[in-house]
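check these tokens.
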Amino acid sequence: IRDWDPPRGFVDVQVRGPFRQWHHHHEFVSSESGTLILDTVEFDVYCRSLRATPLLSWIDSDLRRIFSYRRDRIAALLG
């Protein structure tokens, strides 16, 4: 966790892992129906030439699956 700003949000970064760079900003915003969780993910892959291959679509698909799971779990836990 690089930045911690409760109750507004936090930023986590990858120190070591599959990406050259990973920056994930979690933001919590009040709304009429409760709290919105907004995510901004910036990442870079090690081999930039792979960006023009199906690898990038795999990463996009995987991230969508991860955030979909998190959305469903939060809804189940918090209603």
About this structure: The mean pLDDT is 89. The longest strand covers residues 21-31.
